[in-house]
Amino acid sequence: MERLQKVIAQSGVASRRKAEELIRQGQVEVNDKIVTEMGVKVAKGDKIAVSGVPITQEENVYFMLYKPRGVISAVSDDKGRKVVTDFLPGVSERIYPVGRLDYDTTGLLLLTNDGDFANALTHPKHEVDKTYIAKVKGVPFPHDLKPLTKGVKIDGWKTAPAQYRIISTDNEKKTAIVELIIHEGRNHQVKKMLEAVGFPVTKLKRELYGNLDLVGLKPGQYRALSRKEISSLMELTK
């Protein structure tokens, strides 16, 4: 069972907020009866019409994409740049990315048409870990990165404590590879955190989302999540 306004929004007829307005205005029918109250839930077999026009309910779908560099984490772009949904041409459902990765960041990105699933994973209070691998300018020592474990101030707010690991260093090129695990997802957060402690990022990849990894995928490839993987991710939000 799904909330009526969510089903309307997923059908593409209107946003969830607009769907709620249409329900209050008596423009929505469920099984030939006008519905004006919020909180009504509908099943897959129920007949729904908005302003007299029947809508089709989509099945919830869940995908993992290995996002390449130079791609927007969106379903459209007014500048004509590639977007993540361009890499899932065989998917007919109205999917969208769960959170985002920067234009020049690669790695694991989830896409779905299930709003509750997306909201659960992206809400900071649920603390779902995301693991990033960053190439940085400079060669850090452990004490240089230790402030990350207590949180650092960026853009006037303090980040939640993070975990880090120095994977490798190149003293000749003055670069290093650093792993950073965070559960927040603010704009450019990993880049800003590492820059705040003196190590600007030159390359960034998200390797893990919760317990999901990119094994078996190349940049630009995607696959559906299994029921076990979906359940496992939802468990992490409880």
From TrEMBL:
Task: Kindly state which keywords UniProt assigns to this record, in alphabetical order.
Answer: Isomerase, RNA-binding
Q: Which domain of life is it from?
A: Bacteria
Entry annotated with the keyword Isomerase: yes
Q: Per its UniProt record, what InterPro entries does this chain match?
A: PsdUridine_s_RsuA/RluB/E/F_cat, PsdUridine_synth_cat_dom_sf, PsdUridine_synth_RsuA/RluA, PsdUridine_synth_RsuA/RluB/E/F, PsdUridine_synth_RsuA/RluB_CS, RsuA_PseudoU_synthase, S4_RNA-bd, S4_RNA-bd_sf
Q: Does the keyword Isomerase apply?
A: yes
List the Gene Ontology MF annotations in alphabetical order.
RNA binding; rRNA pseudouridine synthase activity
Q: What class of enzyme is it?
A: isomerase
Gene3D superfamilies, alphabetically? Alpha-L RNA-binding motif (3.30.70.1560), Pseudouridine synthase I, catalytic domain, N-terminal subdomain (3.30.70.580), RNA-binding S4 domain (3.10.290.10)
- Any one of the GO CC terms: cytosol
A Pfam match is PseudoU_synth_2
What EC number(s) does this enzyme carry?
Answer: 5.4.99.-
Every copy of the RNA-binding S4 domain together lies at 2-61
Q: Name one GO biological process term.
A: enzyme-directed rRNA pseudouridine synthesis
UniProt-listed PANTHER family: PSEUDOURIDINE SYNTHASE FAMILY PROTEIN-RELATED (PTHR47683), RNA-BINDING S4 DOMAIN-CONTAINING PROTEIN (PTHR47683:SF2)
Assigned protein family: Belongs to the pseudouridine synthase RsuA family.
> What is the protein's name according to its record?
Pseudouridine synthase
Look up and give the organism this protein is from.
Vagococcus coleopterorum
Query: Organism classification, top ranks?
Result: Bacteria, Bacillati, Bacillota, Bacilli, Lactobacillales
